[in-house]
Design a protein that fits this description.
Blueprint (H helix, E strand, L loop, with lengths): L1 H15 L2 H17 L4 H12 L12 H12 L2 H14 L2 H26 L2 E3 L4 E2 L2 H9 L2 H35 L3 H16 L2 H30 L4 H11 L3 E3 L5 E3 L1 H16 L6 H5 L7 H33 L11 H9 L5 H33 L4 H14 L5 H25 L1 H11 L13 E2 L2
Parallel strand pairs: 1-5
Antiparallel strand pairs: 1-2, 3-4
Helix pairs in contact: 1-18, 2-6, 2-12, 2-18, 3-14, 4-10, 4-14, 4-16, 5-6, 5-12, 5-14, 5-15, 6-7, 6-11, 6-12, 6-14, 6-18, 7-8, 7-18, 8-9, 8-16, 8-17, 8-18, 9-16, 9-17, 10-14, 10-16, 11-14, 14-15, 15-16, 16-17
Amino acid sequence: MFDAINSFVTTINGWVWGWFMIILLFGTHVFMTIRTGFIQRKTLSKGIKLSVTKDPEAEGEVSQFGALTTALAATIGTGNIIGVGTAIAIGGPGAVLWCWLIGVFGIATKYSESLIAVKYRVKTEDGRMQGGAMWALERGLNMKWLGVTFAVLAGFASFGIGCATQVNAIATVCNENLGIPKWPVGIVVAVLTGIVIFGGIKSIARVCEKLVPFMAIFYVIGCIVILCMNYDFIIPALATIGRLAFTPGSAAGGLVGGGLMIAMKMGAARGLFSNESGMGSAPIAAAAAQTRNPVRQALVSSTGTFWDTVVVCAMTGLVLVTTIMKNPSINADTIENGGVLTSMAFSQIPYLGPVILTLGIISFAYSTILGWAYYGERCVEYFAGSKVMFVYRIIYLLVAAIAPIIALDLVWLIADTLNALMAIPNLVAVLLLSNVIVKETKKYINDLDAKDDTPVPVIKD
């Protein structure tokens, strides 16, 4: 029975992640890059500075930094560690280049989807901000049916990408490195998650503001140490990644490239899973930010893709490829689990390597659980009302509790599939509202302190 389910999900996953999705996703990234005048330049020159600038007088629930770290909490997760390793194991080193390119061009899409999330956001009677692809589709395009579709897909996706895969990863790393049985880990994570998420976005943001910078810096330092140890293989690794991104071939350590299609497919899938550009999840957090105008917060949000993929995922990929090339005894062709590859890489650091990896996975995964709990809440509230929020939270915590005993391979496949499906309505919103995005960008990009006086509509439950 399990084999039949796994085979069915694998077939669906292969279909949704075919050429259509790759063209739609990467095509949107390139299209919005052109339409916004290569907004990536502004992300680096202005977005990073704005991300740490407070604007308490602007309307919203949390600071710009709080919204960014909440989004980063959800995006910087096991996809940055295990996901990149899986991409290399299945798609070859070339997948790293496509994952990176998805991130670079994806900055424009993250900017665009966050802009319309803020522009079309609404406010509940008790002062909570609501926004995201569902509201952009409803208010911007009068396509509520598609907004409901997105919300339903995202609501269900939160249990997979945001909860089950992350808790499973925590349980696995605790079991393999600390000898802790898997099942108690799920219960502990569920309790810790419940303490935070019942406090709403402000509670989640407070935790993420402290956790995200620490975990990212801690992990990046570990990667830098390994790259210093593998310094003589960095240039050969870059050359191998570039060559195997387009053509079949092999390299040291059993590294094999399957050619353009498999490298693009795995790179795009892991890139989207990691940075979520185009998926429509991060804009839900952006809509809650205290910001003077949509462009201001859109720039802040777009920095998330830069940090997540252009920096963290790229470093992980380079660490793994240099490690495999340096150690011929590691036969990457026989390893299908990305976590195994990453563990081998970090074991190069005496004593501290496994500790860095263990703490990295635990903190990355736990932060993702918190961020996606908020995403799921907003989506479920959109199509079912605020009265079901308590039920949603209880189910979310139950999934966390039982996740350690769920088959991880099947969960990853389901999460991948839901990612692609929920991206479609979000990309429809971005593409059909591209004129609005261009208009708003021209209006505010050179005067980011200008205030948008358009009143935020108040909705009734």
